[in-house]
């Protein structure tokens, strides 16, 4: 049992390590997205550098990485859905995939910020809170056109939603929500500085192959 859990955790990390943005950019455009735009290997920078088609593909793949990892617990028949242990293992496998996305072994440990993969994890564990966070993200994006601010806002709202709106009582799930909010703030420090300085890029989905200095 323990050996299987460890195996699935490692498998989740490897799954998360699949650098969707890097591989899609190199395979179809001959471009490493980490050398352009924000230098980030995620869906947002893919939209910015390669355009909508590549961005949507990478967004879908990154969401599926988190979702698939969190669903691996289904292959442990002795763990029953809805129990605290089931949710805890979903969190373990999901976080392993998130770690892989942030530090992918297949891309020199230089990955994305994990927002799309986080959404996939949430869809697998509690889709209502995932939809609510997605709603917060879209509303903020529509109002400000700042992807970073939208991501931060949705992440901060996540623990608020699961504690006070959806009344979840699982301690590790609540701790997960709080840690995710802090993690997103941490991984967006540069964006926060640019927001405060008024020079953060607004969402633009047209290809732009301009190398950053």
Observed structural traits:
disordered C terminus
Please characterize this protein's 3D structure.
The chain is mostly helical and 213 residues long. Helix content is 69%, strand content 0%. It has ten helices and no strands. The longest helix has 20 residues, at 52-71. The radius of gyration is 17 Å and the shape is globular.
Cα-to-Cα separation, first versus last residue: 50 Å
The average pLDDT is 92
Report the helical percentage: 55-70%
Catalogue the unreliable spans: 205-213
Number of domains: 1
Could you give the count of β-strands? 0
Residue fraction in strands:
under 5%
- Return the structural class: mainly alpha
Identify the overall geometry. Answer: globular
Helical element count?
Answer: 10
Radius of gyration: 17 Å
Tell me about the largest β-sheet. Answer: none
String of helices and strands: HHHHHHHHHH
Task: Describe the SSE topology.
Layout lengths: L1 H15 L3 H10 L13 H8 L1 H20 L12 H19 L12 H11 L1 H18 L2 H19 L5 H17 L1 H9 L16
Summarize the structure.
This protein has 213 residues and is mainly α. It is built from ten helices and no strands.
């Amino acid at each position: 049992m323990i050996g299987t859990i460890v195996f699935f955790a490692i498998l989740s990390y490897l799954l998360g390590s699949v650098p969707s943005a890097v591989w899609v950019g190199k395979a179809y455009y001959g471009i490493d997205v980490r050398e352009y735009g924000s230098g980030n290997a995620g869906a947002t920078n893919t939209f910015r550098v390669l355009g909508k088609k590549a961005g949507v593909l990478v967004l879908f793949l990154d969401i599926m990485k988190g979702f698939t990892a969190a669903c691996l617990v289904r292959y442990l028949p002795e763990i029953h859905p809805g129990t605290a242990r089931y949710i805890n293992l979903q969190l373990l496998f999901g976080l392993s995939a998130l770690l892989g996305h942030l530090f992918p072994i297949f891309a020199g440990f230089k990955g994305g910020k994990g927002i799309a993969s986080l959404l996939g994890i949430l869809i697998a564990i509690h889709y209502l809170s995932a939809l609510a966070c997605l709603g917060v993200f879209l509303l903020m994006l529509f109002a400000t056109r700042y992807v970073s601010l939208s991501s931060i806002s949705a992440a901060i709202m996540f623990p608020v939603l699961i504690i006070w709106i959806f009344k979840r009582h699982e301690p590790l799930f609540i701790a997960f929500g709080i840690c995710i909010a802090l993690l997103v703030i941490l991984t967006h420090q540069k964006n926060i500085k640019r927001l405060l300085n008024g020079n953060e890029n607004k969402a633009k989905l047209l290809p732009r192959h301009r190398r950053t200095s």
